[in-house]
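FW: tagging you since you asked about this chain on Friday. Here's the raw sequence from the shared folder, copied in full. Didn't touch anything.
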Amino acid sequence: MTAIIAVITGLILVSDAKFGGQVLLENLAYDMALSIRQAQVYGISVQRFGTNTYNAGYGVRFDTSSQYSYLTFADAVTSNGLYDCPTPGSSATCELVQSTALERGFRIAKLCAPAGTDSTSCTGVNKLDILFIRPQPDALISAGGLSCTLGLGTCYDSARIIVMSPRGDMDSILVEGNGQITVQKQ
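HL: got it, structure written out here
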């Protein structure tokens, strides 16, 4: 009888841990989507950056070399649609608004900039800059550190950020060029 109770208890604990991990992953994906939405709100409204910059676009930078964090930025120092920080540590030359750390072993697994209008495909890239500029809610999506606002790179129709739990479960955040942001199961 004791062995049966121990087996049932073990199964419940394993199932509970799996469920809890999936909930935490989904919460992370929604938090990241909200950060992108916040950049969109700042970008299409009049949000001050620094002491007197009111016309900057706002965006979010994802970088596979920093899998455990992402940045919200104001495109104010160099208006090129990308996060710039020529002198790291100097607030006068960096466009950083906020750095968000991913905790508990969760990470950014892959960044995608699908070719064409097929948002389900995943053409992997190492950097994604998603920018919003007043008055349009549309997303300007640059990949690989090449600015699409300056014509140096392609403006992509969508971007996908795939996040992974320590157990290997995955969710993704899809940002469409029209400004729509959704969270999807992988």
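FW: The longest strand covers residues 57-63.
HL: agreed, and Residues 105 and 166 are 5 Å apart (CA to CA).
FW: great, closing this out.
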